[in-house]
From TrEMBL:
Signal peptide: none
Domain UDP-3-O-[3-hydroxymyristoyl] glucosamine N-acyltransferase non-repeat region span(s) in chain numbering: 18-83
Subunit organization: Homotrimer.
Listed name of the protein: UDP-3-O-acylglucosamine N-acyltransferase
Keyword Transferase assigned: yes
Organism: Campylobacter iguaniorum
Amino acid sequence: MKLSEIYGILNLEFSGEDIEIQALNSLGRANENELSYCDSPKNAKFIEDSKAGAVLVTEQMANLVKSKAIVVENPHLAFAILSKPFSKPLFYEVAESMIDESATIMPNVHIGSNVKIGKNTVVMAGAYVGDNVVIGDECIIHPNVVIYNDCKIGNECHINANAVIGSDGFGYAHTKMGEHIKIYHNGWVELEDNVEIGACTTIDRGVFEPTIVKTHSKIDNLVQIGHNCELGFGCIIVAQVGLAGSSKLGRNVVMGGQSATVGHLSIGDFAKVAGRGGVTKDIEGKEDYAGYPVMKLKEWFKLQAKMLKVFGIKR
């Protein structure tokens, strides 16, 4: 839409050159035909190198924008409002799908437009495969799995019953009156080769970019993977784990049952988090952790021993 239309949606007065905005994108990925936003001083460092045609900013950061600065009180809220008119369609134009002749598609499966399904893949009854989905060779898609539009599934992946791949992320901006304005997510999910997803597990699509699960990672039942997360090679994620948005796990990270992360943090390669551990900040690799907030496992054992002694509890 025209930049002037965007100003109208945000109840702002427009002046200057009226350019065409084709999409919303992150500061790092946006081009001259796209709009981005910056909602905090810690992200201001990305404005200088951004190629975005326009950027939603507060008045204090307007001087940092090289292109068109759209000055608003709350850039995050303005972005959420604009995410709806720029959201991807629920259905695309009908295009022929390419299903290998060796693939097995059981009854009551929905296959969307422009879908690609590889050799010897089995899609079981009741599954939903959305538009532009790619599924590789030798995969098994179990009953009632949902794979939303634009997601990519590698070779030899197993997705167990009722899992949901590519659902909209849980993201909202908030008004002064306490209303929660939905952020529409235009990213997707990528599962690399030899990934297994447990029953009733959900993996949310990213806002602009993919949520990624890398090769040989195994995810148990009832796990929640938030938007824009990245799981490295060979991760093991046990039942009822919850990863908040933009959590980055290195290779061969193990997370025990009911452990969790807050968003926007990193876990190093070969780290292990014990069951019910709560990761609240970046943690190093090649270490074992436990507790909430997590600490190194040896320290946690010492703390538990001291507490038992202080309170006179015998075990």
